[in-house]
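Quick one: sequence plus zinc ion SMILES, need structure tokens.
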Amino acid sequence: MYNMDSGLLGVATGVAAAAGFMGYAVRGRSSSVFGESFYHGDRSRPVLALTFDDGPSESTPKLLDALDKYHVPATFFMCGENVRRCPDVAREIAARGHELGNHTDSHTRLDFKSPRFIYREMAQAQTTIQEITGVAPRWFRAPYGVRWFGVAQAQQLLGLRGVMWTVIGYDWNRTADAVVERLVRGASNGAILCLHDGRELRAKPDIGVTVEAVRRLVPVLLDRGYRFETVSRLLCPKT
Ligand SMILES: [Zn+2]
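Reply:
Sure thing.
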């Protein structure tokens, strides 16, 4: 009886450990299980990368003005559907010197999808961004940070590298105060900060919290001696 109980306990522990591992593999910010992925840069340089997901949107230009005020470059992970809805905004982001990344075509969760589906989501976004802006993204960020079987191969075929974040702002459901506090606390050498200039595929999203947080956050971080770089410069300073 004792042995049977401990055997069952062992199986249960094994199942829980496997589930825990899958959770980490799929969503862990430092996980490279489903493809090479970065979540921070060189910890010896006082540089940060501001990144924005889910755009472009009709609301992005306000954010571009806030960044221009401090001459700060950022990286925008765009969805193909949003680029087709707001092509002028997508071009404007590139024209103002920011880097463009791939955030899939339709912002669908990739877990439990086929490798073929995942490739099409990533390839469609890559084609759209390239056709509309003339820029081929080099970096991929999965929607909700969720990776799956097939992402690694799609990244390789499309010349993309995965990137997550060091700290995420939760700017879609918190106050500007809370977002600023969280990001200031999370900022450290080489950190990648994640915010949103869109809200999934919504048209005319309210990104007031994000814009307000950026207006307050950037001067505080510059005062602390940080410089801002695009993801490519932060992660590959020599190229
Ligand atoms: Zn997203």
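The mean pLDDT is 94. The two ends are 64 Å apart (CA to CA).
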